Amino acid sequence: QVQLMESGGGLVQPGGSLRLSCVASGSRLRINAAGWYRQGPGRERELVASFTIDGMTNYADSVKGRFTISRDTTKNTVYLQMNSLKPEDTAVYYCNADINSWRFDGTPVAGKDYWGQGTQVTVSS
Q1: d(Cα 64, Cα 85) in Å, to the nearest integer?
Q2: Cα angle value 60/47/80 (rounded, 5°)
Q3: d(Cα 86, Cα 97) in Å, to the nearest integer?
Q4: Measured between alpha carbons, how far is 104 from 91 in angstroms, rounded to an integer?
Q5: Whether 103 contacts 28, CB under 8 Å
Q6: What is the band of 12 on the pLDDT scale with cuts at 50, 70, 90?
Q7: Is the dihedral of CA 98, 80, 115, 48 positive or negative?
Q8: For residue 114, how far is the Cα from the chain centroid?
Q9: Contact between 66 and 82 (Cβ < 8 Å)
């Protein structure tokens, strides 16, 4: 089965940068669309950045100009580059992806929505 593995979170000072990675493991798969979400203490989960199957991107106003979502199709990986980090960016960040896959004999498997386990980002001096 397809799994999403997130990495890159950690502790960083205000103004610093982090790059989050989300790898879709397994062979014979294609990421159709993906997004990064975050959830801070006592808050609802918020869509931070996303791209659609045709490559259109969208960003929350709070991160526009500071965060960039991208993908590497050869590695089945989605990235979130975060620059000029602020304390209010502190949250658990989650990767979400819509993925098509195929069985070993080429039989297609219906597209499914997957979530990563989340990675903690803490911005503090």
Answers
A1: 12
A2: 80
A3: 26
A4: 38
A5: yes
A6: very high
A7: negative
A8: 11
A9: yes
- Cβ-in-10-Å burial (0-12, 13-18, 19+) of 77 comes to middle
Both structure tokens of 97: 């992806």
Q: Provide the residue count of the chain.
A: 125
Task: Tell me the Ramachandran region of residue 58: left when phi exceeds 0, alpha when psi lies from -120 to 50, beta otherwise.
Answer: beta
> What number is the average pLDDT over the span 25-52?
93
- The pair of structure tokens assigned to 49 is 């950045």
pLDDT at position 35 is 97
| Three-state DSSP string of the chain | CCEEEEECCEEECCCCCEEEEEEEECCCEEEEEEEEEEECCCCCCEEEEEECCCCCEEECCCCCCCEEEEEECCCCEEEEEECCCCHHHCEEEEEEEEEEEECCCCCEEEEEEEECCCEEEEECC
Contact 72, 23 (CB under 8 A): no
pLDDT at 8: 97
Segment 56-73 mean pLDDT: 96
